[in-house]
Design a protein that fits this description.
The structure holds two protein chains of two kinds.
Chain A: H1 7-22, E1 25-26, H2 27-38, H3 49-59, E2 62-68, E3 74-80, H4 82-108
Antiparallel strand pairs in A: 1-3, 2-3
Helix pairs in contact in A: 1-3, 1-4
Chain B: H1 3-11, H2 13-37, H3 42-53, H4 56-67, H5 71-88, H6 90-119, E1 130-136, E2 150-151, H7 156-166, E3 170-176, E4 179-184, E5 192-200, H8 204-208, E6 212-215, E7 231-234, H9 236-243, E8 253-256, E9 259-267, E10 282-285, H10 291-295, E11 302-308, H11 314-335, H12 341-348, E12 353-356, H13 363-400, H14 402-410, H15 415-451, H16 467-493, H17 497-501, H18 508-544, E13 554-560, H19 568-583, E14 588-594, E15 604-606, E16 620-625, H20 629-633, E17 637-640, E18 657-662, H21 663-670, E19 679-684, E20 687-697, E21 712-716, E22 723-729, H22 733-747, E23 752-758, H23 759-765, H24 768-802, H25 804-812, H26 817-849, H27 862-888, H28 892-898
Parallel strand pairs in B: 5-10, 7-9, 16-21, 18-20
Antiparallel strand pairs in B: 1-2, 1-11, 1-12, 3-11, 4-5, 4-8, 6-9, 7-10, 8-9, 13-22, 13-23, 14-22, 15-16, 17-20, 18-21, 19-20
Helix pairs in contact in B: 1-2, 1-5, 2-3, 2-4, 5-15, 6-13, 6-15, 6-16, 7-11, 13-16, 13-18, 13-24, 15-16, 18-24, 18-26, 18-27, 19-22, 24-27, 25-28, 26-27
The chains are: A alpha+beta, B alpha+beta.
Chain lengths: 109, 899
């Protein structure tokens, strides 16, 4: 279990959030959404998204399937699973608890 | 991912790799398209896409790891690589598997015998509580005097006293030696078969805790009245083999010897007696073993095996039994007033031993335990050679693969991963070799046991290749894999990519390691060759021993008759007639009769008394023979005369018994004087029998090839006991037998030929141990030599290949063929030096340690050393010639262009 403040955990949360809101996406689209949403704050190599996706797929939070896209190309589409949704809920909760805590410390310090 | 798809992925990792790559490619295509749409040149767009994506290889590796984290997948993939690698270099694979499987096979075969004969506990509950009684062997003239043996036999009266003395702290059971007897089922009208019989006390099965499989086993009730319990228990194995496992066997009648018995039950499956190596077929109770054997304290032919009570120790039993034993020894001394002081002292001071008998009692073990351990040690040496051999082969192969390794390292593969893969390859290699070895051992072990077995003394083991042997095999294989694989694997995986990719051939360190492996092989192989030569020469020396008789073309025929004990004159007359009639037949050069054969492990020793002197210190060896014995065996008569038909020992008259003595006897008791005409006495109870020496014969071995000339006394045959006919004939064995049988039946219809053995076989049976050591030692020496030669050849070949360029330059600069050859030879001798020295030192130490098993061989025997060095030298020269010639044939132009 990754510690709540690791990059990996943050990336997981982002991916789950994106897939939860925008439905099935391929890796490229997810990468673009991450950049867009985090406004480049979460700087990662685009490529390292894929091991994360594969890991989450292994864990069972997301599912993937090869499909033929609009321009007749094969693409791997990812979508969130029920386990993924549960994970998203509890992770969101944890993150907000965590950031609230940090904010309180900063306030009182 | 589902389990199914994971499995699919692990079986098809390439498909998975393509998936990952395609996804990444798709991503970059899209990114590139985006950059192009934003107005960049395609090249620049592709570059930016790649930069943004990051290290493609590393990312793919990570995905792979995630996908295929399971060890199963990794191993499967390693195995696939390994199999592919094996297919690519069949010569290497075959050599490696062959060397390893021969070595592991040898170890497993011998271990399986060691396990069955020495290590395996008896198949009874709580075998650790069993013990056996033994006493030190009395050192007597003529008998085996190596001192390794212990006496295991006790008389029935002694057994009874022991049983009483042991009280509640142990129960004692009685077991005779297993002997091959004639059996007829159900009665004497049936054909004669043979079976192995053992006589036991009534409580023997109860003590061992062996239940019946069918019917019942003996109880104490079956062992009460002498001659009153004609019952038999048969072994499960015999039941299966002879009665096809028919439960109706209970009540079956058997005729054994002269008695008729009823089978009352079958012992539990797997129980074959208390002696590993012997499979008992039929058990009878002690009550049926004849009155004399039950009452005579001098008849020691019972083994005593007991079971300790739960809280008792072997020391307590010893303390309880020793006084009884001592009393018996004192009685023996008192009964024999003329007993030599040396033996008297030995008996009085003799301590009874209570030995653990968890693995049973075994004569075979007494003889063969040490040789077997030695042979196992030799086999271990072979295994080491094979490991070093394969290690050097692997090393050479690693060089060939260094660019592959470098490629994989520069592509991001971890060192641990590479080592794992290389070890998997080795493990696969040794597992294949282990399986082959197991098959080989299965076939070889029974052959080995057969080598140690003889018709009269059959040895048989339940050589189950069971879990223990399998585990042993697996352990050896795995250890071998680790041993020979780790160093080369580490070295190979340490390949520095830049060097290797540029084409620089292997490092000097690798060659050094190779040299080390070759030295190990040379050392062990040289040691094995010397040891093997030692055993072979030792056997040759035994064969060359002047036995004093000529065993070639002499058969020893045992003839069964049915004359009662009181009619020994009829047997004597028959023997005389048969002897002269057979001697007259064409093709027969000589005949003789005796009550038992020489080299049959039968020793009759007595003290002798010279007139006016004290009884002799030693007991001397006696043997009864017919007229013509010395001529038939070609033992020279040096003086006096041979026996005549009228010569006999007649207890009624006081006439001196005509006696022939050998040269050693004459020298010992009469010095330089001619003994013919002299007399001596042989004490018998309170009286004595007088002997007159009528002839003097040359020294001849009687029961043992190793001992020096022993004094011997030949007496005329008296017709007691059984009949052995010696026949010297140029005819083949079957015709001799049929001729003798025909003649015998013509004289007395009731007799028949029971057993025939060439005298050479009988003599050979006394040196089975030496034959085993020479046979296996020789084969293993050859094997070790072959392996070492392969190792040398491989490394030299590799070293020549590595130096192709150097040699090319040398010959371009004008070096002649001979100086190139010299270069390779120098390399060869550099590799040999250390190994040879270590091997020589090791072998001298080995031969010193094995001195008792060698005959006529000194630790640093020049003949042995010279032979071994010559054999080894020629093998090494052979191994070195090919690479040297190859080096000499290098064309400088081609060699220089090669790089």
């Amino acid at each position: 279990m990754p510690s709540p403040n690791s990059t990996q955990s943050a990336l997981d949360l982002l991916v789950l959030t994106i897939l939860g809101r925008r439905g099935p996406l391929h890796g490229y689209a997810i990468a673009n959404s991450i950049q867009e949403l985090s406004e480049e704050a979460l700087h990662i190599e685009e490529g390292s998204l894929y091991p994360a996706l594969h890991r989450m797929e292994e864990t069972g939070w997301i599912a993937a399937e090869w499909t033929i896209t609009e321009n007749k190309r094969r693409a791997r589409m990812y979508q969130i699973t029920r386990a993924g949704k549960k994970q998203l809920a509890s992770e969101t909760q944890r993150w907000s608890d965590y950031s609230n805590g940090v904010a309180r410390v900063l306030r009182l310090a | 991912m589902s389990l199914f798809s994971r499995l699919r992925h692990s079986l098809h990792p390439r498909r998975l790799d393509e998936d990952i790559a395609e996804e990444a490619r798709d991503h970059m295509e899209r990114r590139k398209a985006q950059w192009i749409a934003e107005g960049l040149e395609p090249e620049e767009a592709a570059r930016r896409a790649a930069v943004a994506f990051g290290n493609m290889t590393r990312i793919q590796e990570r995905s792979r790891e995630i996908r295929l984290w399971s060890a199963v997948e990794g191993t499967l993939q390693d195995l696939r690589y390994a199999v592919r690698g094996m297919r690519k270099s069949p010569a290497f694979t075959l050599t490696a598997i062959l060397s390893l499987s021969l070595a592991i096979g040898a170890n497993t075969a011998i271990y399986s015998i060691v396990e069955a004969a020495i290590l395996r506990p008896l198949p009874v509950p709580e075998p650790g509580k069993l013990f056996a009684l033994t006493s030190p062997d009395v050192q007597r003239a003529g008998a085996d005097t190596t001192g390794e043996r212990a006496n295991e036999s006790f008389s029935y009266p002694m057994y009874q006293e022991f049983r009483t003395a042991a009280g509640g702290s142990a129960r004692l059971g009685l077991f005779t030696w297993a002997s091959v007897v004639e059996v007829q089922i159900p009665d004497r009208s049936a054909p004669i078969e043979t079976a192995t019989r053992q006589i036991v006390s009534g409580d023997a099965f109860e003590i061992l805790n062996v239940p019946p499989a069918v019917g019942r086993v003996f109880s104490q009730e079956d062992d009460r009245t002498p001659g009153g319990h004609p019952v038999a228990v048969i072994s499960h194995e015999y039941w299966r083999r002879r009665f096809h496992g028919d439960a109706a066997v209970v009540g079956q009648r058997l005729r054994l010897g002269t008695g008729s018995y009823v089978v009352v039950g079958v012992a539990r499956e797997g129980f074959t007696g208390v002696e590993p190596g012997k499979f008992v077929d039929v058990w009878l109770t002690a009550a049926m073993s004849g009155k004399a054997s039950l009452t005579n304290a001098g008849w020691s032919w019972f083994r005593i095996v007991g079971r300790l009570a739960p809280d008792a120790t072997r020391e307590q039993i010893q303390a309880r039994l020793q006084p009884v034993f001592h009393t018996f020894m004192e009685d023996t001394v008192k009964r024999n007033p003329t007993m030599p002081e040396g033996i008297r002292k030995q008996l009085r001071e003799m301590a009874l031993r209570v030995r653990p008998a968890e693995q049973g009692v075994s004569e075979f073990r007494q003889t063969f335990a040490k040789p077997l351990w030695i042979v196992l040690a030799i086999a271990a040496g072979i295994l080491l050679i094979a490991c070093a051999n394969v290690a050097s082969l692997l090393l050479a192969r690693a060089t060939a693969r260094s660019s592959e390794m470098a490629m994989r390292i520069s592509l991001g593969a971890g060192r641990a991963r590479l080592v794992r893969q290389l070890l998997t390859e080795n493990l696969l290699l040794s597992l294949v070799a282990g399986a082959a070895a197991w098959l080989m051992a299965r076939m070889a072990a029974p052959v080995l046991v057969a080598m140690l077995s003889s018709e009269n003394d059959p040895v048989q083991f339940a050589l189950s290749m069971d879990t223990r042997v399998l585990l042993f095999c697996a352990a050896i294989s795995t250890l071998a894999a680790m041993f020979f694989g780790l160093l080369p694997a580490w070295q190979a995986s340490g390949a520095r990519p830049m060097l290797a990719l540029r084409g620089a051939q292997g490092s000097a360190g690798r060659l050094r390691l190779g040299r080390f492996f070759v030295s190990v092989q040379v050392a062990f192989a040289f040691c094995l060759v010397i040891t093997g030569a030692g055993f072979l020469y030792s056997l040759r020396n035994l064969f060359l021993v002047d036995t004093g008789f000529d065993s070639r073309r002499v058969s020893l025929i045992q003839i069964a008759d049915e004359w009662p004990a009181g009619e020994s004159h009829r047997r004597r007359d028959f023997m005389n007639q048969l002897r002269t009639q057979v001697a007259a037949l064409p093709g027969v050069q000589g005949t003789a009769t005796a009550p038992w054969g020489i080299f049959e492990n039968n020793f009759w020793t007595e003290q002798i008394v010279l007139p006016g002197k004290a009884p002799s210190e030693r007991e001397e060896l006696f043997y009864r023979v017919s007229p013509g014995y010395f001529a038939a065996l070609r033992t020279p008569l040096l003086g006096g005369r041979d026996f005549q038909v009228g010569d006999r020992e007649d207890p009624k008259t006081k006439a001196a018994v005509p006696t022939i003595v050998n040269l050693a006897f004459a020298r010992r008791y009469f010095g330089a004087e001619n003994p013919v005409g002299k007399t001596f006495e042989r004490p018998k109870g309170s009286t004595a029998i007088r002997h007159e020496i009528v002839g003097i014969a040359g020294n001849a071995k009687y029961g043992d090839l190793r001992s020096g000339p022993e004094p011997m006394i030949y007496l005329p045959i008296d017709g007691g006991g059984s009949i052995r006919l010696y026949v010297r004939s140029a005819l083949d064995l079957p015709s001799v037998v049929s001729t003798v049988e025909r003649e015998a039946k013509a004289i007395a219809p009731g007799v028949r030929v029971r057993d025939v053995t060439p005298l050479e076989t009988l003599v050979g049976n006394t040196i089975l141990k030496e034959k085993l050591l020479a046979g296996i030692g020789g084969v293993f020496a050859a094997l070790g030599l072959l392996l070492a030669a392969i190792g040398l050849f491989g490394l030299l070949n590799y070293s020549v290949a590595r130096r192709t360029k150097e040699i090319g330059i040398r010959s371009a600069l004008g070096a002649g063929r001979s100086s190139i050859l010299g270069l390779v030879w120098k390399d060869l001798f550099a590799m040999l030096g250390g190994g040879l020295a270590a091997g020589l030192a090791g072998s001298i130490a080995t031969l010193t340690a094995l001195q008792t098993l060698l005959f006529g061989i000194r630790p640093a025997d020049p003949v042995v050393l010279l032979t071994a060095t010559l054999v080894f030298g020629s093998a090494v020269l052979l191994a070195g010639t090919l690479p040297a010639l190859r080096a000499a044939a290098i064309d400088p132009m081609i060699a220089l262009r090669h790089e």
